[in-house]
Amino acid sequence: MDPRSSPARQWRVPRTSPVVKALGALLLLALGLLLAAGDPVRPALAGLAAAGLLAWALRDVVAPVRLAVDPEGITVIRGFAGRRRLPWAAVESIRLDRRSRRGLTAETLEIDAGESLHLYGRRDLDAPLDEVAAALTAARAAAR
């Protein structure tokens, strides 16, 4: 197997994430049924919210790897569970955006590929975003 065909590094959602989301869906259903008091709307709304959480958990199971890098470029998630390959020539910039508001700091990793912008948070990659940005930048520099 060619070592350049497999990802040199990859980042995925935390392994506990789908479990927590599925448990949240069960809790929502239980609360909807418990607080229904004869009203069919409450369990229906709880069921819709639970279905959304279960779909989100399913995505974490089907496509846990959100970002991968190798000498030829990066692979990003596309849509619900698809993948998109971006060669280094298509990547215009890799940037870490930090914003503070009301005492909280939010970080977002931005990968600008010209016609598309790929955004990742800490919970998407289960790693400090500054480390991910540094690894991507180093891999990009090594490929040049």
Provide structural commentary.
The chain has about 140 residues and is α+β, with helices and mostly antiparallel strands. Helices cover about 40% and strands about 30% of the residues. It has helices at about 15-35, 40-60, 120-125, 130-144, and strands at about 10, 65-70, 75-80, 80-85, 95-100, 105-110, 115-120. Strands 1-2-3-4 form a 4-stranded antiparallel β-sheet, covered by helices on one side. The chain has a 3-stranded antiparallel β-sheet with strand order 5-6-7. Helix 1 (about 15-35) packs antiparallel against helix 2 (about 40-60). The radius of gyration is 19 Å and the shape is elongated. The model is unreliable at about 1-5 (pLDDT under 50).
Order of helices and strands: EHHEEEEEEHH
Q: Which shape, going by the Cα principal axes?
A: elongated
Rg = 19 Å
Portion of residues in beta strands equals 25-35%
Our count of helices gives 4
Helix content: 40-55%
Question: How are the strands ordered across the major sheet?
Answer: 1-2-3-4
Mean pLDDT: 91
Weakly predicted, low-confidence segments: 1-6
Q: Classify the secondary structure makeup into a structural class.
A: alpha+beta
Cα end-to-end separation: 23 Å
How many E strands? 7
Major β-sheet, in short? 4 strands, antiparallel
Which tags fit this structure?
144 residues; 4-stranded antiparallel β-sheet; 3-stranded antiparallel β-sheet; 4 helices; 7 strands; 31% strand; elongated
